[in-house]
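Service request form, structural biology core

Requester: graduate student, group of Dr. S.
Request type: structure prediction, single chain
Budget code: on file
Notes: please return the result as structure tokens.

Sequence provided:
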Amino acid sequence: MSTGHARPATAGAWTGASVSRREDPRLLSGHGHFTDDFALPGMLHAQFVRSSVAHAEVTSLDLAAVRRVPGVVAAFSAEDLGLADITARLGRPLTEFVPTGMPVLAREKVRYAGEPLAVVVARDAYAAEDGVEAARVTYASLPPVVSEEQALAPGAPLVHEEATANTLLDVSMFATEGIDATFGEAPCVVHVETRTGRQNALPLETRGVVADWDHREEQLVLRTSTQVPHQVRTAAARCLGLDERAVRVVVPDMGGGFGQKCVVGREEIAAGAAALRLGRPVKWIEDRKDALSASFLAREQHYDVRAAFDAEGHILGLDASVVCDMGAYSCYPFTAGIEPLMASTEMPGVYKVPAYRVRARAVTTNKAPTAPYRGVSRPQYVMVMERLFERAARELGLGSTEIRRRNLITQFPYTGVNNVTYDPGSYLESLNLCESVLKDEGWYGTKEKASAEGRHIGIGYCCFSERTGYGSAAFAQRKMEVVPGFDISEVRMDTSGALVVTTGTMSHGQSHETTMAQIAADELGLDIGKVRIHQGDTDRITYGWGTFASRSIAIGGSAVRLAAGKLGEKLKAIAASVLEVPPEELELGQGLVRRPADGRSVPYEELADIAYLKSHLLPKDVEPGLTATATFDVLNDGTFSNATHGVVVELHEGTGQVEILRYVCVEDCGVAINPKVVEGQTRGGIAQGIAGALFEQVTYDEQGAPSAVSFMEYKVPTALEIPEVAIHHLETPCAFTETGAKGVGEGGTIGAPGAVLNAVNDALLPTGVELDDTPITPETVVSALEHTP
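Core staff response, request fulfilled:
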């Protein structure tokens, strides 16, 4: 089968090549293997009895009728299973952060509609659903808290008794001395208040698990769809009271995650507990209704921000309040602090902000809990910053791109008022190129002509950086009890000269089987077809933090390169003995160790034979076998990709419909290991960003019932609404990673909402209407126009 090779296998040949994805032949021919594809002998099926109310004491939970349903094998409550809570913590005082345990199954109280109360196990999924219907639960209703305003109101009902004022996190940071005077004396002060809608990450494959006890290994095996297999292992072992060795997590092919699967869910642990109790495999696959309404959600945030400018348009200060509605529980391991801490630390972004003050809060409400979703607060705070610059530009009579040019960071490294040091990027260059593309394509002329015809066309920009490759130091600054960061890779060559590479990252669509192989093949001068990537198995992978925050290539890829480099040095040491020359006279390439001086060489297969089958011929200081392990961690503030997005929209005033006419993205992710993969990640991210800007939102009624329980209510854009995206690449190699690469996975999502919102407001400019909230629905636009003074 063709692997789509695009270049010869010489050292350095693979990096930068748009190699076809090695995953695709398997996946497109129906040979992928996902969680739901597992069918083990004697396997049972699980579904969950879920709360029908948002906030109540559970006065009784009767499962007797459930156990009489034909096909039902067992039904377990929290009392039956006796599991420890899932508790995420920060090392902060209680005045700043309040930890709250999330029970695997709710006990005396339910805190959101859809919260699991019991697990029903049956011979098939249909019988399990019938069993769920037979459960009898009675409640003593409590007043639901369904908004930030209700949560923070004096005397509000408490979601958690220990979290007074319904606040899980409350931190004030970066209060620059004299900032009040800065605002008092500034000739221009602008204000933006915005709210962003609650969203669902909506991976194509819902969550799921197949749990089974392996008697031979004395292990509970969880085959599950997760971005963080080692963290699932840790949480499951602690909840179940098992040694961590006794839990193995295996991730098969995975149909998306986008952050929803980078936290530990309750259902996979409950299914594991049921499998232990019954001594049979148990499968749970989330249905779409539960995925939409009861799974981890994201995004609902409120920003109230002021910015001070001088008369020439230079920003003088930033004063912000951030409130994130995190739902009923902290997610593990990141906690409810992940969204507000991200926003408060990184809000200044690509701009030279000299003075900064921020208060960031996470409130708890009777809604499904939130998890990180692609971008993690950056789509929101970037949108706010871009709105501030647009507003200041109008007040000062400056062009929207000109005011950005006056404030963009251009000298690197740059340490900001937020105590973050930015590595070199192309902030100004990306803006200039993006604007030039739209001008050269004639969109400014099109806008003027449309205006004369009474049509509303707008052009909007968004400049931003994407902090990627967060190392341990960056996460430790948040005072996380569980501190992610490093990655480990093992590289092993067999006697045929083929390579097996392990990585602690976890692909859920990012093409790791291709890009990681490109890195290893380059380092060792191998054909990419000789390299096999292994990931997602806690027994085969030493340790890993999984995939999130665009860390995989920046950190995981760096570990792969280091490990491959170590193996290369061992190959040279063995070859030096064979050729009787110093190892420093040798180089790797085309599956050989070669001495350029005289052209003599030894193929890897011959060296592997010596390492494994003729170890008596090894040099005295070289151990048998061909394996090498390396770790990598970014010890500074991380790396920063950057981009500028430019959008042209037409606003149809009669219907309120927003039509995207053109979308241009200029991105810089350092060295692009595979430009085709980079473009795919960027386009996919932009589609999700547009979805948040124009379509997707989960709302709740006064009783805390979610509005979106099917795709009839939850509006997801189709290919008809997502435009063609023109992508232009700049390249500023990263000095802090082994490959020169920076992350790119979240950038598309980060830039799209701000660019689209600015374009819509540019189109609305003649009407006097301004919009700051997302999603921008047709109803929103029409209502705003109808209420224009």
